[in-house]
Design brief:
Layout: E1 3-7, E2 15-19, E3 27-31, E4 34-39, H1 41-46, E5 48-51, E6 57-65, E7 68-75, E8 78-79, H2 87-115, H3 118-122, H4 127-145, H5 149-169, H6 176-206
Antiparallel strand pairs: 1-2, 2-3, 3-4, 5-6, 6-7, 7-8
Amino acid sequence: MPTNTYYLDAARTDAVTASWGMFFRNFRLDYQGRELGQLTPAELKAGHEFTLPDGRRLLVRLQQKIGAQGLDFQLDGRPLGGTVNDPLTQINIAFGSIMFIAGLNVLLSAAALLGQVEFLLTLGFGWGTLAEGLVYAGLGWLGKYRQAAWAFYVALGLLVLDGVMLLGSGQGTGGLVVRLFLGIAIYRGAAATRQLRAASATDFASQ
């Protein structure tokens, strides 16, 4: 039975624990060793708000948007770390998506060049795609570790351009669905980066 712990404070001392069975059956939420409640899959999808002993409100729901599926926990309207709408989670997913693209480009390009694999060379893998993979890696690093939203947007633009070129090449539409999901993840990461920067600027201005 999967079990996840989500922290309600920055010090990671105040937490709720969620556990569930297959297809989110028997979903149970515990707080400080006591059961808050249980939800059916239908109730979880609709969302349910629990009241903590100190009066704080904890919204729990299963979000199933395209490209953004997972548990959404919000404490008084603020997403908890590790949940689907947490900005840091979105940035990490975007980073992972970009590094997946980068790694695939580098590995296949290296295989095509070193092994002179005709199939890969015919598909266009070579020095250009190798350089493209390294560019993706750099953009992903800037997006995550420098919180540069523009880097995520540039990576998204490259991905869209690559998809358009694939369609124009007459090689079919294979991989377009994967590109769509990767693109959504990267876009959400860019938006999350802007959100974090705006929040940091607000906090700085209020000091």
